[in-house]
Amino acid sequence: MKAVGYFQSLPINNEExxxxxxxxxxxxxxxxxxxSIQAISVNPVDTKIRNSKxxxxxxxxxxxxxxxxxxxxxxxxxxxxxxGDEVYYAGDITRAGTYSEYHLVDExxxxxxxxxxxxxxxxALPLTTITAWEALFERMRIPQIPTGDQSPAILxxxxxxxxxSIAIQLAKWAGLTVIxxxxxxxxxxxxxxxGADHVINHHESIPTQxxxxxxxxxxxILCLNSTxxxxxxxxxxxxxxxxxxxxxxxxxxxxxNPLKDKSVTFTWEFMFTRAKHQTPTMIKxxxxxxxxxxxxxxxxxxxxxxxxxSPINAEQLKKAHTAIEEGSTIGKIVLKDF
Length: 338
Description:
Helix content is 31%, strand content 24%. The chain is an alpha/beta fold. Helix 3 (126-139) packs across helix 4 and helix 3 (126-139) packs across helix 10 (283-297). This is Zinc-type alcohol dehydrogenase-like protein.
């Protein structure tokens, strides 16, 4: 089968940073599905792994954690899918990635593809959908149905990116008032299009801007961009007994002391936790992907695909990695067809 990978961590402008090669088709066993990849999308984690981890052994390292495709074969322990099913999923960071014609993935982290979407539209969703859903409804424990007379507010820092683009939609579906940050006209327009009620600039004082639009404090803050940079602002803006969730690791130690007086909860979200540690709750990713597929087919959630490249090869993936590393992407970059 065709695949794209690398041997050494190299700058993306190096011709060896990503290479085309061929490898034998994998064989499913146990809970694994063999997927015929139809489309993939690129995420910041792809560039982070490429820049930090080299191949082990004689085969290039295959990365990529977002795909849609068709089930070709199933392992002997599979019960959720059968050959011919159309699926979408983000995969497992401890295993070979999705930059390949065929791919093995545990069925417990795979969802049924939304029937109303094309493969490329569906491929934009899995990793960001799992991240946003787990952050909002599991880590932050936000009710999916409003429990009070007034909609609680959430501040999403970095709303125009991949995770933010789906988090805004899920938060609106759950009945929250959404305040998103954005700093350019095109990103501001995008988050408003997705349903953000208010937009503020993350390059300016967040607490001051919140007060200017009528929010002294916020019960929920989802940080999708530079936890270090925004820590002081989040600590000031969060409401007493509120919750802050971040998906971005820190470059330096952060003091939790500013959160103590207000009894604030801080939590991390890492969507690969369940598969990496084989937790008893792995099946929840299958369930949440199915739930979101239903919401998509009902018109409640839309794809976040913004740029489509073809075919899936080293040349096109280098373009996608370059865009991700430049930090200027809106929504998701998707590739289709080997």
